[in-house]
Each structure stands twice: as C-alpha cells, then as structure tokens.
Amino acid sequence: MALPLSDIPALNATLNAVSASFLTVGYAFIRRKRIAAHRFCMVSAFICSVAFLSFYLYFHYHAGIIRFGGQGWIRPVYFTLLISHTILAGLVPVLAIVTLTLALRKNFVTHRRIARWTLPIWLYVSVTGVVIYWLLYVAYTPIGAPA
Length: 147
Description:
Helices cover 79% and strands 0% of the residues. It has helices at 8-31, 35-63, 74-104, 108-139.
C-alpha cells in the first residue's frame, strides 16, 4: 500500500525528530568516549536525514508549494524561522557528508573541528523542521495542502 501524499509531511517531521534524537544521543556518547555507539547514532541520523530529503523532494514535486495559513504576529515568527531553517538546511548535506567522510577516513582532528559546526547546525535544522511542520500543518491551516 502506497503512502498517501498527505501523510508525507508528518513522516518528514518524524524523520527530523528521530534525526535530532540520534544527533543528541550520539553527542552524549562521544563525550563519554563510546565511539561505536557514537558512530551508530551519527550514521543513523544521516540515514534519517537522507530519507527525509528524499520524501521532502518527492512531496514538493507532487504537491507544489504549501502556503502558511497563519495570520497576525505568527507570520513573521514563522517566516523568520523558515528562512533561517532553509538557509542552514542547504549547508547540512555538505557538512554532514564532509564530517562523516573525515571520520571514515580516520582524520579525527579535522573531523572534530568540522563537527563542532556540523552538529549545532544539523540539530537546529532537525528541530526547527519539526516546529515548522507543527506550525504549517497542525497549528494553522495550510493553503494548498494535498488532501
């Protein structure tokens, strides 16, 4: 049975939340020098993010642009969050691939240096992705969302 187009935004929010969880737990593991557990969490976060991106592109290819239905003070709040999220989301694939590649090549000095930027940006994008979903699909009625 195929996933209805209207269910993909909730799936994407879930993938973002799971990715954020893996990132957070993975960070805690590396602070405790539990390298194998850290590696598992970070690779899992990457897989969730790749799945998210695939579903996101599929959804917007078929659904087009979904317009925010909120009015009043929430509009500038939503769009400020959306703009910062979108700009940083464009960096995440490159940062994540570079950071993971450095780790796989055992270049841990550079890996750590880049990961100090990658982690907070990736975590911000994952968490704000969930908030944007909630604002767009739950708290306020979207305009042009597929049924």
